[in-house]
Amino acid sequence: MGMGWKVHVWYRDDVAFDRLALKQQLQAELERLESIFSLYQSQSEISRWNHHRATDWQVVSPDFARLVQEALRQARQSDGAFDPTVAGVMEARKFRSIWPTSRSKNPQPRQQNSEVIPIIDWQAVEVTTEPPQVRKNHPKIQLDLNALVEGLALEKMRGCCQRAGVLACLLSLGGEYLIDCERLFSQTQNQAGVKIFVESPVDATKSLAVVRSLKGCVSTSGTYRQTWPDIKSPDQVSHLIEPQTGQPLKASASLVSVYHENPILADGWATSLMVAGREKGLRLADEYQLAALFYSAEEDEPLIISKAGKGIFEPWETALVSANPFQACPSDDGRTSRENSSPVVSGWSWSWKIILCIAGVIALIRFARFAAGRVDG
């Protein structure tokens, strides 16, 4: 699906744990989901459904039906800001490449194919889960579920880790992080939580805010990484499509981060609020009590946190460093995620640092006494 993944796991020393077996299980699960939802593969389940022109019911896998159901619910709750039927626009504009052309030496504008007239209408899709079936009411309707697939994948990956008997895990995939560390913190009697940093779209070496959590998901959507030249203007455009106009959002130093216990909802709402814009996005966040952070370098007040997010997102300049067994910092290559921050997790706790400092002081005292004895002699 054009993204990398990373998994950190913690397990008890007295429990037999097969790292290689877990890695193989995770890879197999991701490949299974890719065979269903990848728009880069012509034979994936969603690609076959998209290019099927009949309007009759099509039997699909349970995961496919479930995610379509979630997508339609997201579209309804966001008043159409989220629309899973933008795939036709993505295909017509030739956005369906793994890497944006802006990363190449000679980026080319993404001109829309004039022979293709995309249809955007989430209400033209119907789904049933028993039995799992999906149908389109217009033959040109195409689905793009990428804004929810990461959340589903993280949910499945967490299941693999739990079945393997791990004590805790921290998962990253694309623009999302899933934290499942309640059991680990109960062992250490430390309730500070894992720290996830939200990357600044202005400077990738800096952070806007930090989230501390024992369990939950942080998802970020932005218009500052995946960008292309616009055929109609000197501006850059992003990969996010505004459903009402069918046009991509202008590329800018803007993002929305959402924290939610459900990874699918975190994923979907991050995209929904980003596309909705700050004013409507804040209204939706308040209506559904979403913990959300909005940032736009073009606004007079660049950083705004929703009411429900006040105790979740701490602005970086005011965030206090608290003792916990994890320390997150940018990775060597800047960021592994295309839309989010990339913490590298370390197992050093403050208690160990204090112990090492005390040991160092004791060693220095003993050395000084030894040296003094040599001088006296």
List the helices and strands and how they pair.
Layout lengths: L4 E6 L8 H19 L7 H6 L7 E2 L2 H16 L9 H6 L32 E5 L2 E5 L9 H18 L4 E6 L2 E5 L1 H7 L5 E6 L7 E7 L1 E8 L4 E3 L6 E7 L4 E4 L3 E7 L2 H14 L1 H10 L3 E6 L6 E3 L7 E3 L34 H27 L1
Antiparallel strand pairs: 1-5, 2-4, 3-4, 5-6, 6-9, 7-8, 8-16, 9-13, 10-11, 11-12, 13-14, 14-15
Description:
With 377 residues, the protein is α+β, with helices and mostly antiparallel strands. Helix content is 33%, strand content 22%. The chain starts with a strand and ends with a helix. Mean pLDDT is 82; it is low at 98-107, 112-116 and 320-350.
Beta strand %: 15-25%
Identify low-pLDDT runs: 98-107, 112-116, 320-350
User: What strand line-up does the widest sheet have?
Assistant: 1-5-6-9-13-14-15
Overall outline: globular
Please tell me how large the radius of gyration is: 24 Å
Structure class: alpha+beta
The multimeric state of the shown protein is single chain
Number of strands: 16
Average pLDDT: 82
Continuous helix count: 9
Assign a percent range to the helix content: 25-40%
SSE arrangement, N to C: EHHEHHEEHEEHEEEEEEEHHEEEH
Measured between the Cα atoms of the first and last residue, the distance is: 73 Å
- Report the biggest beta sheet as strand number plus sense, adding barrel if it closes: 7 strands, antiparallel
List keywords for this structure.
alpha+beta, 377 residues, 3-stranded antiparallel beta sheet
